[in-house]
TrEMBL record:
A molecular function (GO) term: DNA binding
Keyword rRNA-binding: no
Organism in which the protein naturally occurs: Flavobacterium chungangense
Name of the protein this chain belongs to: Transcriptional regulator
Domain of life where this protein originates: Bacteria
The keyword Transit peptide belongs to this UniProt entry's keyword annotation: no
Pfam (any one): HxlR
The HTH hxlR-type domain, residue ranges: 18-121
InterPro entries (alphabetical): HTH_HxlR, WH-like_DNA-bd_sf, WH_DNA-bd_sf
Swiss-Prot/TrEMBL keywords: DNA-binding, Transcription, Transcription regulation
Length: 135
């Protein structure tokens, strides 16, 4: 009986810890998930500040999707939209200091992505379409 109560307590702690991890990952995915958000942040970190520069750098993204993603990133406190009145009006997007908290995440994803590409290429699976060969 005592052992059964101990197992229930351990299972409850495990479940609570698992739920906490799942919530945290879900929160992160909400902010930076999807195909484009991290790509936009990386492009901006490399100096692209104007809408057209970002769109050109992040190949395949449509203007409508880029506009929506920029709004989401702004809403989540990662970037700011700066409008300079004049003729013509210029709009630039700038990373906020909070965006630098993603450097470790991007670094880990870069390392894993390179490792995974190498693994797949060495296994000869690149021709099956599992890895995008764009450089």
């Amino acid at each position: 009986m005592l052992k059964e109560q101990e197992n229930q307590t351990n299972n409850k702690e495990f479940t609570e810890e698992c739920n906490a991890v799942l919530r945290a990952v879900s929160d992160a995915q909400y902010v930076i998930g999807g195909k484009w958000k991290l790509m936009i942040i990386i492009s901006m970190a490399r100096g692209n500040k104007r809408f057209t520069e970002i769109q050109k750098q992040v190949s395949g993204i449509s203007a409508r999707v880029l506009s929506s993603e920029l709004k989401d990133l702004e809403m989540n406190g990662l970037i700011v939209k700066k409008v300079e009145n004049g003729y013509p009006v210029t709009i630039e997007y700038e990373l906020l200091p909070y965006s630098h908290t993603l450097e470790e995440v991007v670094g880990a994803m870069t390392k894993w992505g390179m490792q995974h590409r190498e693994k797949i290429m060495s296994e000869g699976k690149s021709s099956s379409g599992k890895i995008n060969n764009k450089q």
